[in-house]
């Protein structure tokens, strides 16, 4: 009887333990202090909880950039889970892509926190077929508009297990925004994001306003990069854009049925 009670107690405790692990990963001193400063704008705890990410999952992070979310995920995910970072292609001809990939690889090699991360090319199959629990992308869709987005979503679907999750955070354009404006502004409509995901077999499970920002009009001189943290106009109207804060973002959860 005592064993049954103990088992039930542990079973009930598991969600709270997972929650604690995620909170600990977010508050870890391993994170860059400059990244921590953006937590109030990017809501990592709420976002990863909404995406149903658990510490024992095999997760692919698409185009991790400098590793803002990677720092959190690497601290949170542990064996039998695994974190795969799908970065710019290693043999890309674009100098920026080469620098970004090299900087990320350097960071991974130098930080013990990142020692178990596997790095793959963004245009690759990402992982073995039906081997991944979740694929995540944060503020990247605008960079992929067109055939690349189709390729990445198709490969994500193949890599995911049946029932696997696709979590998307992206700068949100106003409904009806043209493709030309989306490419120029860095904002993407929810309709387009959902349409492409569904075209490749995903089912929309839920939307969240975790990363919404009603102050953002999505209409700025230098697109989304006018806002922090980029502040492309530098000191011009800086206080105005700091007051707006980071972009209004959609947060979408899809499932491979």
Low-confidence stretches: 5-17
Helix content: 40-55%
Characterize the largest beta sheet: strand count, sense, and whether it forms a barrel: 7 strands, mixed
First-residue to last-residue Cα separation:
39 Å
The secondary-structure element order is HHHHEHEHEEHHEHHEHE
What is the highest CATH level, the class?
Alpha Beta
The best one-word shape is globular
Count of individual beta strands:
7
What structural category do the secondary elements indicate? alpha/beta
Strand order of the largest sheet: 3-2-1-4-5-7-6
Strand content: 15-25%
- The CATH architecture would be 3-Layer(aba) Sandwich
Compute the number of helices.
Answer: 11
**Any idea of the CATH topology?**
Rossmann fold
According to CATH, the homologous superfamily is Vaccinia Virus protein VP39
Radius of gyration: 19 Å
Number of domains: 1
Q: Residue-averaged pLDDT, rounded? A: 94
């Amino acid at each position: 009887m005592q064993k049954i009670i103990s088992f039930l107690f542990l079973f009930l405790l598991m969600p709270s333990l997972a929650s604690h692990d995620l909170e600990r990963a977010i508050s870890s001193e391993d994170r860059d202090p400059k990244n921590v400063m953006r937590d109030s704008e990017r809501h990592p705890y709420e976002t990863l909880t909404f995406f149903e990410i658990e510490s024992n999952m095999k997760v692919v992070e698409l185009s991790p950039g400098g590793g803002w979310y990677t720092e959190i995920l690497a601290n949170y995910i542990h064996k039998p889970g695994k974190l795969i970072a799908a970065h710019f292609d290693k043999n890309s001809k674009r100098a920026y892509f080469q620098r970004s990939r090299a900087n990320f690889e350097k960071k991974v090699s130098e930080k013990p926190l990142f020692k178990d991360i596997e790095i793959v090319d963004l245009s690759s199959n990402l992982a073995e077929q039906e081997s991944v629990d979740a694929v995540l992308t944060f503020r990247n869709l605008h960079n992929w508009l067109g055939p690349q987005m189709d390729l990445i979503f198709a490969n994500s679907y193949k890599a995911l297990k049946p029932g696997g999750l696709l979590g998307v955070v992206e700068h949100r354009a106003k409904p009806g925004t043209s493709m030309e404006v989306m490419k120029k502004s860095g904002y993407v409509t929810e309709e387009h994001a959902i349409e492409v995901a569904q075209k490749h077999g995903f089912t929309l499970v839920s939307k969240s306003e975790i990363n919404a920002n009603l102050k953002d009009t999505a209409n700025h001189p230098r697109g989304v990069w006018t806002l922090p943290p980029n502040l492309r106009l530098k000191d011009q109207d800086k206080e105005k854009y700091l007051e707006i804060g980071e972009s209004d973002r959609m947060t979408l959860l899809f499932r491979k049925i």
